Amino acid sequence: MSNFPFLSVLTVAPLVGALVVAFLPRSRPDLAKQVAFAWSLLVLVLSVVMWVSFNAGGDRFQFRESYSWIPNWGVSFTFAADGIALVMLMLIAVLVPLVILASWHDAESSKRSVPVYFALLLVLECTMIGVFAAADVFLFYVFFEVMLVPMYFLIGSYGGHQRQYAAVKFFLYSLVGGLFMLAAVIGLWVVGGKTFDWQALSQVDISTGTERWLFLGFFLAFAIKAPFFPFHTWLPDAGGAAPAGAAALLVGVLDKVGTFGILRYCLPLFPEASKWFAPWALALGVIGIVYAALLAVGQNDLKRLVSYTSIAHFGFIGVGIFAFTTQAGTGAVLYMLNHGLATGLLFLVVGMLISRRGSSLISDFGGAGKLVPLLAGVLFFAGLASLALPGTAPFISEFLVLIGTFTVNKPVAVIATLGIILAAAYVLWMVQRTTQGTLNPALTEVDGMRRDLNLREKVVVAPLIALIVLLGFFPKPVTDVINPAVQATMDDIGRTDPAPSVGGTVQEAAK
Amino acid sequence: MTELKLPSIDYSALSPILIMLGTALLGVLVEALVPRRWRHVVQLTLALLAVLAALTMVVLNADERMITAGQALAVDGPTLFLQGAILVLAAMALLLIGDRSVERGGAFVAQAAVTAESADDRRQAEGRNGLTEVYPLTTFAIGGMLIFVAANDLLTMFIALEVFSLPLYLLCALARRRRLLSQEAAMKYFLLGAYSSAFFLFGVALIYGFTSGIPGRTAGVDFATINAAVSESPASQVLLFAGMALLAIGLLFKAAAAPFHVWTPDVYQGAPTPVTGFMAACTKVAAFGALLRVFHVAFADAAWDFTPVLGAVAVLTMLVGAVLAVTQTDIKRLLAYSSIANAGYLLVGVLAPSRDGLSGTMFYLVAYGFSVLAAFAVVTLVRDADGEATHLSRWAGLGRRSPFFAGLFTFILLAFAGIPLTSGFTSKFAIFGPALDGGQAWLVIAGVLTSMVLAFPYLRVVVMMWLSEPGESTPTVTVPGGLTAAALMIGVLATLVLGVAPAPLLDLATGAAEFVR
């Protein structure tokens, strides 16, 4: 089964689906929704088959395919997935059907074409899969940039308050990062002997000065995408304005392209520069953790609050990557997955609350738990997962990042731990102000607030809750896939873990 | 007394030029002899057939490599590639020029001598058929451009420059509506163009002086002699530098590079839109074709001397184009500044001293030409009772009124912004790659930075069209007749194909990227 061209089929399939959906008559929105949902389920099934046929103990890169594209420049359609990419692909495949289901009525309020909304979601899925599956730097860049277009229209056409401003800001920030990366991509192509193949480029020796400039070009693009402090200001605007489903994908998956890019491109291709810049990157990560968490505490807009919590979490991921230990690296990758699940859930639930209330301001809620107990419960659970309560999946990743960092850099680990306390503050306070306490009398007058979760919404949240709990207790299937890939990345930059001083307990924790 | 020897002329190699100039003369006769109601059809058919015939001859000559007509014309890879490009783009422009369904009677004035804003003028604007002299004028211009990219000495180049410039000055003045703007544009273009021609001619004279006095050679302005003179001439280097600078002014004026760009926005705005498209696509190809030949063949050995200066011009051009594009409120002016910025990118390609650089520049010219013609084709369609609605605020909500054409225009804008899977991206790569390879990292950085700035105005138009609500005054998009639709679709398809599968054209450009000396 491993000879099946999984990655190219997975990339193309959503695009075909998008074309089908886009050309469905505008007068039959339900048909478009059903087709889009069915199509995304098809992609999910295919992804599960791919996951099963992935050999965790085998080669670093599997499912490799390569077709010539622009021979003049050494560009080819090369796809390959390592453990990290595989996990991200799986996350996409799981999230997209749930997002489609959760956005069932989102596009109707906007006066715009409903089929186009779902077509854009599928186009977005195509580009997201492509960006993680590409093993050719040019191809990666193409997906990295094209990804902006569907997201731009999702935010700009179907978003809420200030959507135009948010869409343009999102596009320009990402484009600026992308153009810096383009300069670095061309530079890499020149010093790498006119090839774009990742595996060939990872063997190239680059002079120190050049390497640092190229690293900077790539890192800037990824730091804006992720986003790390101080390049983060677009995310709260975009996350706040985007429809909830698109926001879940934006924060859950799209932003992971940044951290994934650092792991796949910055570290292995520019190992020396990565080590040289690591202190700076760690500093950005730590500042992001504390700063974004503080800002999150002060937010009065639910979606902006969730966006800020994500920036704090990306700080954790950044620290985990640049600590250069296997535990921290595994923790960071696991965090990329868990954050996608937990924040995806949080965004979707928040979206359900907002669509009922017709407002995203926390001050417009209060005591909502008395009207919609089930929804409030799910919000509470999503919040707990987001603050990394033990027993939920994010706890394991956060813990791995912290111990992995502690073994090599105690101050950073200690400051980062502050982030956990702040996380408790912003999540619990938000939950308290929205669902607990005395009932806001205005809420009872809103029709929507009398309806608790319906069947469709239950189907949306159930798989995510199950996955968060499952991976909270039994992350082994995922870590087994991630570990070799992270190990290989650490080998690329020539770092080995420090020998544990108290016989093996740290390694135990990693398992 | 030595016997006068006639130079040998390879007529088949020159046939594209001869066909175009011959057809232009024939077109003048058609004006005199054919009844008025037939002229439009006859002229348009004649011009299109001529372009097709010339293109066929270019394809048949694809393997010719020679210098013919004495030292006057070089028929080699770049010449043939650029001639082909000019002809293909000119065919698209002719389709736009010939369209009479979008605007009743076509985009051109019925009687150029009518006083602007008079009652007669209003009557002619209401739908009397436009001048058919535009076809011979266009064909003359195309013929001049074909010579311009083939010219192998500076005098021939100068004559070609005049042959294609004079018809363009006239064409600019022939807009059916907003006649004053159009006449002003023509006047500006003519005066500044005349100045720049004078600079060019003065440069030729200085270079001629520079080439005299080399033992064993007679003075001359053919490129082989100049090339020899650069390394051997006993004359003062001041002559060379001053001559080179004056020549560059003449050429950079046509290429719309800063600081010789000031005519561009006014002329682009005032000229009839099909002519603007013709200038933006074909004049650019011709001007850069000549720049490439002058600097890669004649002055190749002086690269150390001109590269920093031309580099500075390139950076300035990119900056001026990108920054001023941000402030524009008229779509035609916006596209004009965008075309200035693109001239800057093309200069980066001219300065990449390699075969890849040459082929990348040629690829860029073709890709940009297709996109810009498609862009102007859309501009001709967005109109209200007073003609084209070019003010940007009028485009608000266009995506809601006519999603199809707004979608096409969005695609073209994304191409201009350099988003992958469009020709805008591949062509930027085709230029920046060789430039970085040739050690011009600073130009690439400047190019990337200005691309960021330039993305903003494009994005603003996209926002206008899609994210704003249509207002009372949002014009509708006229459903185009066959000719404009054909030009538009060719342009959009080429933008897509060159973005997704650029390899065939790149192969062609790489194969052609060698000058005969």
TrEMBL record, chain A:
Keyword field: Membrane, Transmembrane, Transmembrane helix
Localisation per UniProt entry: Endomembrane system; Membrane
Gene Ontology terms: biological process: ATP synthesis coupled electron transport; electron transport coupled proton transport
Residues annotated as transmembrane: 6-24, 36-54, 74-102, 114-132, 138-158, 170-192, 212-232, 244-265, 277-298, 305-326, 332-354, 374-392, 412-431, 459-475
Membrane-related topology note: Multi-pass membrane protein
Source species, domain of life: Bacteria
Boundaries of every NADH:quinone oxidoreductase/Mrp antiporter transmembrane domain copy: 134-419
Keyword Cell inner membrane tagged: no
Family: Belongs to the complex I subunit 4 family.
Identification of the protein by name: NADH-quinone oxidoreductase subunit M
TrEMBL record, chain B:
Catalytic reaction annotation: a quinone + NADH + 5 H(+)(in) = a quinol + NAD(+) + 4 H(+)(out)
GO molecular function, one term: quinone binding
Cellular component terms per the entry's GO annotation: endomembrane system; plasma membrane
Principal location listed in the UniProt entry: membrane
Compartment(s) of residence: Cell membrane; Endomembrane system; Membrane
Class of this enzyme: translocase
Coiled-coil region: none
GO biological process: ATP synthesis coupled electron transport
EC number: 7.1.1.-
PANTHER family: NADH DEHYDROGENASE (PTHR22773)
Stated family: Belongs to the complex I subunit 2 family.
Protein purpose: NDH-1 shuttles electrons from NADH, via FMN and iron-sulfur (Fe-S) centers, to quinones in the respiratory chain. The immediate electron acceptor for the enzyme in this species is believed to be a menaquinone. Couples the redox reaction to proton translocation (for every two electrons transferred, four hydrogen ions are translocated across the cytoplasmic membrane), and thus conserves the redox energy in a proton gradient.
Name the UniProt record assigns to this protein: NADH-quinone oxidoreductase subunit N
Organism: Micromonospora arborensis
Gene behind this protein: nuoN
